[in-house]
Amino acid sequence: MEETYEFTKEDLQEIETIKAKFPTNTAATLPVLWVAQRRFGHVEPAVQRLVAKTLELPESHVHGVATFYTMYYKERKGKYVLDVCTTTSCQLCGGYKMLHYLEDKLGIKAGETTEDGMFSIQSVECLGACGYAPMMQITNDVYVNNLTEEKLDEVIESLKEGEMPEFESVGMPLLEKRNI
Amino acid sequence: MSEIFIDGQRYEFEEGDDRGLLQFILDNGKEVPFFCYHPSMSAPANCRQCYVKVGTPVKNRDTGEYELDENGDRQIRWFPKMQTSCTTQMQDGMVVHTQETSDEVARAQKDTMEFILINHPLDCPICDQAGECPLQIQTYKYGPEGSRFEVKKQHKPKRVELGPRVTLDAERCINCTRCVRFTEEISETNQLTITSRGDKNYPITAPGREFDDPYSLNTVDICPVGALTSTDFRFKARVWEMNQTPSIDITGGKGTNIDLWTRDNLILRITPRYNGEVNDHWMPDAGREAYRRFNEKRFSRPAIKLDGDNQSKTSWNNAIETFAETLESNKPEDVLVIGSPHASVEENFALMKVFNLWGVSNFKFAPHVEEGAGDDLLLTDDQAPNTNGVKLLGYEESANIADDVKKAKVTILLTDELIDRGALSADDLKDTFSILMATNECETTKAADLVIPVTCIAEHAASYVNVDGRIQRSFPAKETKYTNRSLDLEMNQGRLDRFGTNFDNWRTEENKVDCVPAWEIMDKLAERIGLDVSFGPSREIMDEIASSISAFDGVSYERMDNEMGINLNPSTKQEATA
Lengths: 180, 578
Description:
The complex is a heterodimer of chains A (about 180) and B (about 575).
Chain A (H helix, E strand, L loop, with lengths): L8 H13 L7 H12 L4 H11 L3 H10 L11 E6 L2 H5 L2 H12 L12 E6 L11 E3 L3 E3 L4 H12 L12 H7 L1
Helix pairs in contact in A: 1-2, 2-3, 3-4
Chain B lengths: L1 E5 L2 E5 L7 H7 L23 E7 L18 E3 L4 E2 L9 E4 L5 H14 L17 H9 L17 E2 L4 E3 L9 H9 L5 E4 L6 E4 L12 H5 L5 E3 L12 E6 L8 E7 L2 E7 L12 H4 L2 H5 L7 E5 L2 E4 L2 H13 L6 E4 L6 H14 L4 E3 L21 H7 L2 E2 L3 H7 L2 E5 L18 E6 L4 H5 L2 E4 L9 E3 L4 E4 L21 H5 L18 H11 L9 H11 L8 H7 L2 E2 L2 H8 L1
Parallel strand pairs in B: 1-6, 17-18, 17-20, 18-19, 20-21, 21-22
Antiparallel strand pairs in B: 1-2, 3-4, 3-5, 3-6, 7-8, 8-11, 9-10, 12-13, 13-14, 15-16, 15-22, 23-24, 24-25
Helix pairs in contact in B: 8-14, 9-14, 9-15
Subcellular location (chain B): Membrane
Family (chain B): Belongs to the complex I 75 kDa subunit family.
Protein name (chain B): NADH-quinone oxidoreductase subunit G
């Protein structure tokens, strides 16, 4: 049996305000997919169908959009999705080391989810934070910069407590020098 | 009148012409390679293959005159980059260079092609599209000689069943989105989309949904590579082994223009043929299934009921003799002639003419309409290809054909499967001597007392009047026992027909049906019963119809061929000119 999904009243209200911003419903596809992902944690085919129905759009269109963007999860993920960057800068600064450390620590491989449904690990392409390599992003949200094994231990512990790490502001090196 | 210079040659176009530059170039008999563009759909310009170099003349803002260079020629301001000609709008004085006069353009097209071919499998010898593949043809013409891509190609799913009739080979797809746009703009079912991105994308339906669009097979025709294939036809035959004969779709009232593809006298597939007045480039999937009717369960040799309900095959002489004796032993007023909206104008006319002279006045036909079966594209409620034709010839429409049959002692039926489609029951024919001219074995042939096999649309040249009153004609595509491809000038010859001999192992006699056109049967019958009528080939019959029935005034095979059909309906004629 496939699970059925429904938007709550608040969601529907939010969708109405999103729709009002755009000339067509087609244009509202992306933000409404975000509403859905926030509510259900993923946009599985059943959720894509719900979005299509809500926006009165063809299912195929919503499916095409959802599969185009990697930040929409087309399958169930853990509560926290750890996107470890493994593109050039991070790779050189130990991105794979961090990834493998996480894999060993949580006992899963990249692309998998822990049994308790808490964590998923993904190896991702450049997130545009090469200056603070190696780094990772948590559930399309906070960046954790300048990773070390100790820092990863801390982050995992705080996430288990339900606390997201705080946003770290890292200044431009040049500016810092000038301020001195 | 505005002017445009393409490859140094001057062409004229009307101001406000909304054709894209590519279409204009093609319409003027020149060529620029392209994949994603299709004249009946929007141009997304995503294949980037139709690059041309474009410039506009420089005008002096004060005087409005063209600025001239030192040689006295117009100064041209070239667009900073090459343009995709499919989306370029023509402007007055525009100068265009295609690959024919610009090495830069030729190089750009070659490089685009190299990109397109990076992940495309280069296994044309085992690809179903080979021989009719725009990618293959254009690579030969404009493509690079080899690839510099030495890494492993991206692999994608090979046999995705998108729906009941279409199979996708995702690796071959070049993401032109023609199929997606077809479902969005033409059939409007929105069933297809492109999934993922980068080198992993290919067309697919929404998860859990089928591509069951009633027009789905058109995407196979417009696919410029071998990605979308017909589940039924894939790997059955090579294009160059078949020959292609123009014909008309007989499964609906629209008269969709089609091509029949034959090999060794079997119809292997049916594809739409362009006719802007009728079906554009499209046809419904239902019409493509009709090829089975032309090959399978054909009625071959006449059959007669001798003892009870058991039919046995008989000779042509005996069939004609029985036919004549039946007529002679009954009064003409007891004879009912049932014309057929499924048969051509010529067949119905020949039947009517002979029996009219014999004194019969009871000419009926049963329309074949299924309410709600039509749509606003190409499907019609009318299930027969020639309802208007039978009407114009003077057959009377009968709401209850069973009642008419009960009153008659002799019933003569023309290629209409009345029992199979529920207009009659087998019991209705019990008390009347029924003579049926038929193409296929069916419940109706089982019930008839005398069955005479006649040619189907794939075996004769004959015309049909569609729901809009447009008369169009077919060409013979299959040989019968009595016709010969190399002697009949209306017939096409494929490679195998032309260069093969009767002893080649790909050639059989089995696919030829023992049948003759209905007008030849009428000709023989008329001779036997002493009527002064004779029928030549269908071309002459049409000339006779045109001169004797005012509705068909001016109709001839030559005109139908030149004008792709003639509109007989005066009311729609006026609409067309208004």
